[in-house]
Design a protein that fits this description.
The protein is of the alpha+beta class and 163 residues long. It has helices spanning 4-7, 54-58, 71-84, 135-138, 147-161, and strands at residues 16-25, 28-34, 45-46, 49-51, 87-88, 92-100, 106-118, 127-133.
């Protein structure tokens, strides 16, 4: 945890950018439990995703002279593959949120949803368990606050599409 004087040294304009995805397969949603060593929300259940890291995308070819289009789509697919060994279909934007980690770093999270494409679950070291759950089943897990609401939002979107 940063001390108050260290917190003031952080550039307030700098944030971690994170993208997460609620993955749907056969009417169920993938959730996973974060490892105890995680800085933010240890041992809480969540959905797959991860941080945008400069040196990872900086080596990629730019899509314009100065920029990278589609980097969040790339990030989602990369993180989901690394964390769960799954591939997804096209991700759809759901919502965003911001919070400050216990170590003082602010985080902007872009939340998406996507349908499962293929793969068998193989969790990375940062996740300890997983479950495919319905909206109702998700309520019994110790989810990060707001994750159940996001799962419900996706369930509602899918229900409207099926009508």
């Amino acid at each position: 945890m940063l001390q108050p004087n260290e917190q003031s040294k952080l550039d307030p304009r700098l944030h971690f950018v994170v993208a997460t995805a609620i993955i749907i397969k056969d009417g169920r949603f993938l959730i996973a439990k974060r490892a105890p060593h995680e800085k933010a929300y240890p041992n809480k259940w969540t959905v797959p995703g991860g941080k945008l890291v400069l040196n990872e995308y900086q080596a990629m070819p730019k899509t314009t002279n100065d920029a990278w289009y589609g980097i969040i789509d790339w990030l989602l697919r990369k993180e989901i593959k690394e964390e769960t060994n799954l591939e997804i279909h096209r991700p759809y934007y759901l919502t965003d949120l911001t919070f400050v980690r216990p170590d003082g770093y602010p985080v902007v999270t872009l939340s998406y949803w996507a349908r499962y494409k293929n793969g068998e679950i193989k969790l990375c070291k940062d996740l300890t368990e997983h479950a495919w759950v319905t909206v109702e089943e998700a309520k019994v897990y110790d989810l990060i606050e707001g994750i159940w609401d996001e799962i419900k939002m996706v369930n509602d979107i899918l229900s409207r599409k099926n009508k």
